[in-house]
Amino acid sequence: MKRFSMWRYPARWPLFRVDDRLLLIFTGAIVGILSGLAAVALNRSLSFMFDYLHRFRGHFLAFLLPAGGAALSSIFLNQIIREKPGHGVPEVIYSVSRYGGLLRFRSSFSRLISSCLTIGSGGSAGPEAPVVMSGSAIGSNIATLFSLNDKQRVTLVGCGAAGAISSIFNAPIAGMIFTMEIILGEWSTVNIVPIAIAAVVGTEVSHFFTGDQIAFSHRNFSIHPLDVISCVGLAVLTALASIILTRMLRRMHGVVAKVSLPFWLKAAVGGCAVGLLGLYFPDILGEGYHSITEMIGGIFEAGILAAALGAILKIVATSLTLGWGGSGGIFAPCLVIGSFVGLFFQRGLTVMFPYVDWVNEGCYALLGMAGLISGILQAPLTGIFLIVEITGSYEVMLPLIVVSAFSTTISRYFEPASFYLKDLVERGQLLRPGTDSRVLSDLSIAELLETDCICVKKDMLLRDFLNIVQKSRRNYFPVEDEKTGHFIGMVHLDDIRPYLFNRVMYDTVLIEQIMNGKMMTADISDELPAVLSTMDENGFFSMPVVSEKRFVGMISKATLLDQYRKELMVQTSDT
Amino acid sequence: MKLELKEVAKSLDLPQGTVERWIRQGRIPIQKRNDLCMFNKAVLKKWAKMHNLSCNLSETPDQTEPDDDQVPDDDNDNLLSSMKRGGLLVDVPGNDAEFVFRYVVGRIPELSTENKDALIERLLQREELVSTGIGKGVAVPHPRSPMPEAISESLVITCVLAHPIDFKSIDDQPVSVLFFLLSPSISCHLNLLSRLSFCLRDNAFVSTLKALRDKHVLFEKIELIEKQADGKG
């Protein structure tokens, strides 16, 4: 029996007792395999659906396909799985920072199915965020199965995300950096090794199943210094596109909120509109890897205006799909829009400066992709490494850095928070490790409680009260109701100071007459940041804490500072 | 060495809830064995040092119990035991403070000759500052700072003078009863002074003091008043 239960607790295996980092590497590899498989499964089913539905594309009613897909996907997510709509990355980030990476089991497949329905039927969205969500949920559930602690679970969530991104793009470093930059928000040596291993394993899984037919194949470009300079202009365009996409998505959410239709009908309306756009411009449908491959390969035939139109229509289609209730991410649409912008820019350059030998349009498409990712996700390193790994050449490094840096800077000027973090920032839920909000959210009021106060009754004489004052080490004395035990007020030492040397008052004044009955209280279940802001607003140094109307202790800024320092030291010096 | 959660929390000066959360979050090093969390003392110390946390593990086992007992013993020593140690001197001769001080200090067996001289000098210095005659014919001579090198345990020596002497008391009355307060620490001194002044608030008690001859009567009375004070306070 004991041997049987041993497998559930790998931390007790003799090998892992030596060092628990080995345990993380081992479980990280398992998570990498599974999230890689999830990515392969989604990719396979997307291409299967694409091939199967391709024969109907010519039909005049084909515009209804994305509508059906989006409606089914929203019904599946809302009614069957009962999960929140959206791409899921903010949920993963929030769970990592607040609940030690705890995610539900059903999250490991829910977004895969719903996004497969949306994207496979032609909706304009990306499969990356759903796969990241699945990979993360797989990591989280494996950590729970093996009864690992929060820190280890967060690492495994990161492993899942890294494995997923690596597997989709065949780009292990990009997967790793995406996880560090976006999901975890910290770089620590404890995390990096298992995440790197998961990324490599994820890539190998995708290699194993798809062979060399990877999403984007390697290319070589010869970059001219003029190209590097021109990248500043490209960065401006990509930043502009990022801002338009972000704002349009938000507007669309605002518009949709006002429409009173059932959620599935809303998704269908959005899908329908995308389908109609797709009739005239099929490149905007689906996740768009196909058109990206064409653009990188330089075989995209349409002209400069078609490229500009493509970028605009893809932005519109993505907002329609995601804004109206379709399921999927923003990563792949970013890549498509980026390629269109890059293509447009390169063609514009060739028209304006026909005698300069510009590098081919495929390279500009890739640079545009990096620009868009840096602009929307505000994750320049992810953009840079993704493109470096896709192209497999270091010559593009310099223009890549220029595009990414400028694009991030410009779009951050207009949109201070990235697309993934925007909602969290608005709700005050972005709790990056080592920040003030994170430390405060980890500390609970129960941990800060000072319980050495002596409670007094309201009909006590001042003389008896003075005897209690003699024994107490605190300046505050909570007053309780005799019958109910409820907290009714507070006596501060300052309140009795005027009567302290007047002996006549000793037997005439009752506590009830001295106490402050309008004292603001905090509940033991309150969140610390809220209590702290109440204290700041009113200039309190300490506050009584009640639980079910009974006094349980005091919370004071002195104790808070002490605990806050310890918490910060423990949280920030993790290696 | 095995450590309990309570001990770990105490040594790090943290609430138990925080240590529990740190275990859950994997911030503090533990070893799991059959659903038990074990702390390793050496590992914990190293961890605390790395995170710049104060961790007084080595002293914890020794300190836990005596910590609670020793402090009250030292500071909150009651008046009665100090009085019993000091004893009662009756019919003390002398016409001025210095003579009385020399007479009384000369009868403290624990003190060496140098310490006796030093103590008398300090007592006189204190009287020069402000008289310790607190009125109603009572004075509480004491040195300004404690003498831990000379006095290991607090002493209260009760003296009834043969003739009342002038002590420059606050009410200008001659003094006939003196309580010598000798303590090893300031907190102990304040505690004794506070308890003594509580007893001296009782006018009936003060009036009996002048005719005091039997120390057991005094101790019984003091015990009674102290009990009252403790019961109330």
Mean pLDDT of chain A: 86
Assembly classification: heterodimer
The tally of domains of chain A stands at 3
Distance between the termini of chain B: 43 Å
Q: Would you identify the CATH H-level superfamily of the largest domain in chain A?
A: Clc chloride channel
Unreliable residue runs of chain A: none
Order of H and E elements of chain B: HHEEHHHEHHEEEEHHH
Biggest sheet layout of chain B: 5 strands, mixed
Description of the structure:
The complex is a heterodimer of chains A (575) and B (233). Chain A is mainly α and 575 residues long. Chain A is built from 27 helices and 6 strands. In chain A, a hairpin with a 6-residue loop joins β2 (476-480) and β3. Chain B is an alpha/beta fold and 233 residues long. Chain B folds into 2 domains: 5-68, no CATH class; 76-232, Mannitol-specific EII, Chain A. In chain B, strands 3-6-7-5-4 form a 5-stranded mixed β-sheet. In chain B, α6 (97-105) packs antiparallel against α7 (113-129). At the A-B interface, α8, α21, α22 and α27 of A face α2 of B.
